[in-house]
Fold this protein.
Amino acid sequence: MAVRQIREIGDNLLRKKSRPFETVDDKARQLLEDLYDTLKVTKDGVGLAAPQVGVLRRAIVVDLSMEEENPQGPFFLINPVIVKQSGSQVCREGCLSVPGKLGDVTRPEKVTVEALDKNGKKVKIKAEGLLAVVLSHEIDHLDGILFVDKATEIFDQDELQEEERWVIEYSIYGDSRVCTFNFGRDI
Ligand SMILES: [Zn+2]
């Protein structure tokens, strides 16, 4: 088990484009395992991309297996690409690399992602709702994009929770899950 340190906004590495893998070798598999181990020790993370642990390679892990309503994953993906997308949804997202902040981001409602799995086998994921958001968010990391670049409004998490405690009952996130109230709806 290798838990790696998560890079935070301001770190230039998070702004760089990651390189694809040519083959899924032991090094790629180790990276996926490390991403998963690192994600698991966060309190509420649901996804992590390699640049967030300082590695500029196209690998992500997404884990919605703890979701109550629609548990899915974990997904271990190498060279993930969105090949199809449709619709739109606005979510309040957070990110393990942007601690304490949330933002409202418009994402596709549905995405089809192609990638390679741990064994180098081609996989296709048809995702909608929360899973579509997390996949889009994590794939953005591979191109140096953070949710704050796309957010129409950015909030301080503590203040928001203080002010809106009464509506915090529906869950949402990006790669740091927080509770908020507008998932999948227009704000
Ligand atoms: Zn993130």
About this structure: The chain has a mean pLDDT of 86. The chain has four helices and ten strands. Strands lie at 47-49, 59-64, 72-86, 89-93, 101-107, 110-116, 122-128, 153-156, 170-172, 178-180.
